[in-house]
Amino acid sequence: MGAQSKPTISPWGRAAAGASGAVLANALVYPLDIVKTRLQVQVRGGKLAPGAAGNDPTYSSTWDAISRIVADDGIHGLYAGMKGSLLGVASTNFAYFYWYTVARTLYFGSPSSSVTAPSIAVELSLGAVAGALAQIFTIPVAVVTTRQQTASRDERKGLLATAREVVDGPDGVSGLWRGLKASLVLVINPAITYGAFERLRTTLFPHRTTLKPWEAFLLGATSKALATVVTQPLIVAKVGLQSRPPPGRNEKPFKSFIEVMRYIIEHEGPLALFKGIAPQIFKGFLVQGILMMTKERVELIFILFFRYLKSLRRAHLRKAASLISAATRKGSLTRTYRIIVHIFTLESTA
């Protein structure tokens, strides 16, 4: 009952809370996002095609990537594409939490649902449905952001200019949805994350309506770390799909995430499917922890705010009822009736 015992809040409220937490968390750790993306798209030890340029930098570690990005692009290089990224984070998480709340509400309202907490399979299914709907509407922002993050300082453009570059490419407008299949497969990542979060919450805090900040942080971070380890090869393949093709392909884009994975294994070995996993886990640990901690607080603020509005409304109704009652006792019922009719007449003609 842990998941169901939380105070009622609308899907819009949960979506706003989730988006707020996601934007705050990602803004705080954005440089890690740049680093893990750069590590995931680099090809080390691969053979270049004839005439291909191999000027893209390669990094040996997270710290090496941070140092060289700062040396080449300055501190601003660690925040390349941040506006687009935060826009994508806000839209994706708003859509995800909205549809996730709707799906859970429909499930608990269906005759087949039980009074106990849903099973792990049900939690994963609800998360997958919400993730798929969110990805369909928000993936263009992710494509543009990935292009910005992997471009060199001289080639880097603004959000709209980068989107135009993608559209002018070989795929046309459909290029904005590159990696959609991989993204739909990757809905298992948030599905595992939030399914594990709800399961851990139900197990560890079965009768709690709200979590303490450190509890929400720990559950969120642990859930995300688990999901990242399971889905890292798909994450690497998705980034490869959405970024510029490596020099060895002579500007020929990948067609599927399976093709990306084969290319990586052929040129770098199977372990390269997990490249960038250290900053990916660290970023996910911090982001998901801060996100869930913030989301819990924002949801509580929304609940208290709506309760305050309801109390104000009840107070106004009680005051109006007492005024009418006083007027009735004084024998001015006709005058009170005329005032009420006049108010309703004004409202209907407004």
TrEMBL record:
Keywords: Membrane, Mitochondrion, Mitochondrion inner membrane, Repeat, Transmembrane, Transmembrane helix, Transport. The keyword Iron-sulfur does not apply. One of its GO terms (molecular function) is ADP transmembrane transporter activity. One of its GO terms (biological process) is ATP transport. It is found in: Mitochondrion inner membrane. InterPro entries: MCP, MCP_dom_sf, MCP_transmembrane, Mito/Peroxisomal_Carrier. Gene3D superfamilies: Mitochondrial carrier domain. It is a multi-pass membrane protein. GO terms for cellular component: mitochondrial inner membrane; peroxisomal membrane. Solcar repeats lie at residues 9-106, 118-203, 211-301. Belongs to the mitochondrial carrier (TC 2.A.29) family. This is Peroxisomal adenine nucleotide transporter 1. It comes from Drechmeria coniospora.
